[in-house]
Write a structure and sequence with these properties.
The chain is 33% helix and 25% strand. By secondary structure, it is α+β, with helices and mostly antiparallel strands. The chain has a 7-stranded antiparallel β-sheet. A 6-stranded mixed β-sheet has the order 1-2-6-3-7-25, with helices on both faces. The protein binds zinc ion.
Length: 494
């Protein structure tokens, strides 16, 4: 570390320690606004809470002497310095909803308890946003000389579709360097491409038309093979389902179906008219394990991290013994415990992105159709059209049609770029340990912003309960945020 950087680092750390109570007071103000998505109204596209949070950000920016612009309550930008900005820091002031049930601390407040700051937005993304504001304030009050202008941008719709940034982008161009404190440290510079695909086919698991010959050469229905009536698994396409509920057809339903398909009417009349035969069938049915409801249980995880979960759908498919060609094909395409889509013809990886992921996350019967959903995260050296072509072909060969595809191309900022290298150096100097650039399957706020990376705010090992009950950030991490952002702005805009 140069003497200049080292001295500045120490001065900033001392400044934040000295002003920590004021910083917490600001955090408390913004965290007490419920800025989750609300009913849109004239001039408030994401509701009252989001607009109030943006107004709070704008007020703070004005107090800091920044040049503030409110973009119709989609986003607020605040520019520091003259000329075209070299850097933008993009965070969001909206949050996911919270109700007090289950919380140890009130969700819309800032409570410090036992080394943690509790409340909705503590880590996502109000804590980091306040850290950025105070980084700017520290640089100003300590008169740190900057030659380049930079900009802080707060959005109001990250949690519900990122319409904030889509709108903002049409109004103000992004500078060449952009980072968001809405991801993870050290630096997240590689985000895999994403495909969310749904598919379906007409479905009737009719596997019980087969009959066996008994010792007396009498034809007898074989009811020991399951015949699926309905499947219900998964509620969102980007999560590994932990539950797959399968119901099987009843004996009466199977009899009806069997009768309807057998041409030999006289034989059928004999069979179903014969009490003894009916009794044999009933006995066999009672012994059968498949005449009720079965629930397969797995472990949930994010769709971009299937290896952290245990997919209840593929568990069911692996256990399925019936005759449905569709289900058998899915079992072949998605073997339980395989996460990279190899059996679908995928299974790609590259050195920067690592292994791709491919998970069957939805499977439901609906209106006589079997409907499924797949979450794919693919490496940066592939394209949406290539990957969707392969998976579509695999599904079509299995008898399905693809219904809908939502996709994003991969996002990558070279690790060797001066921008990424500077952020990594800041990380090393502030944290005291070397950090390597990270590739992710998850999609961050800046996925569609060219040249942008995520720099913090979370450390992957901290249990911060993001989006959950008792969301929190450790005081230590929050202080690291303050120091990381202040040093980063100073070095990038020097
Ligand atoms: Zn966020």
């Amino acid at each position: 570390m140069t003497t200049e950087n080292s001295q500045l680092k120490d001065k900033l750390a001392a400044y934040f320690d000295e002003h920590f109570d004021e910083i917490l007071a600001d955090l408390s103000e913004i965290m007490s606004i419920d800025s989750s998505f609300g009913t849109p109204s004239e001039g408030k596209p994401f509701g009252d809470g989001s607009a109030a949070a943006l107004a709070w950000g704008a007020k703070k920016g004005s107090e800091l002497g920044l040049n503030v612009r409110n973009f119709d309550n989609y986003a607020v930008s605040m520019t520091c310095g003259e000329g075209d900005p070299a850097l933008a820091i993009l965070s969001h002031l909206d949050v996911v909803p919270a109700t007090p049930e289950g919380w140890q601390h009130p969700p819309f407040a800032c409570t410090v308890d036992d080394g943690y700051i509790y409340g909705r937005g503590a880590i996502d993304d109000k804590g980091p946003s306040v850290a950025v504001l105070w980084a700017v304030k520290a640089l100003k009050e300590l008169n740190v000389p900057l030659t380049k202008a930079f900009r802080v941008i707060f959005g109001g719709n990250e949690e519900r579709g990122c319409k904030d940034i889509a709108y903002y982008q049409t109004k103000e161009p992004f500078p060449p360097m952009v980072f968001t404190p809405d991801g993870s440290f050290p630096v997240l510079n590689c985000e895999k491409g994403m495909i969310h695909l749904t598919f379906s086919a007409p479905f009737n698991d009719f596997t019980d038309a087969n009959y066996i010959l008994t010792e007396n050469n009498v034809k007898q229905w074989e009811y020991t093979i399951p015949s699926v009536k309905s499947i219900s698994a998964g509620s969102v396409i980007n999560a590994i389902p932990d539950k797959c509920v399968v119901t099987y057809k009843s004996i009466d339903e199977r009899d009806e179906e069997t009768k309807a398909t057998v041409l030999d009417d006289s034989f059928m009349a004999y069979l179903f008219g014969d009490d003894r035969m009916r009794k044999i069938i009933q006995e066999q049915w009672d012994k059968c394990a498949y005449h009720e409801v079965e629930t397969y249980t797995g472990k949930p995880s994010h769709g971009s991290r299937p290896e952290n979960g245990d997919n209840a759908i593929t568990k069911f498919l692996a256990a399925y013994k019936g005759g449905s060609e569709l289900l058998k094909a899915l079992a072949r395409l998605f073997p339980h415990g395989e996460y990279d889509g190899k059996s679908c013809g995928l299974g790609f990886s590259d050195e920067i992105s690592g292994q791709m992921t491919c998970a069957l996350t939805l499977l439901n019967t609906d209106g006589g159709r079997l409907c499924g959903g797949i979450d794919i995260r693919f490496p940066i050296d592939r394209t949406v059209s290539e990957i969707s072509g392969i998976i579509t072909k695999a599904l079509e060969n299995a008898g399905f049609t693809v219904d809908e595809i939502e996709s994003m191309e991969p996002h990558y900022v070279p690790a060797e770029s001066e921008f990424v290298q500077t952020l990594l150096q800041v990380y090393e100097d502030v944290k005291g340990e070397r950090g390597e650039p990270v590739a992710e399957g998850g999609i961050t706020y800046v996925h569609n912003t060219p040249g942008a990376v995520a720099f913090g705010a979370e450390f992957p090992w901290e249990d911060n309960r993001m989006h959950g009950i008792d969301e929190r950030v450790s005081v230590e991490t929050f202080k690291l945020n303050l120091n990381m952002y202040a040093n980063a702005i100073a070095r990038l805009c020097r």
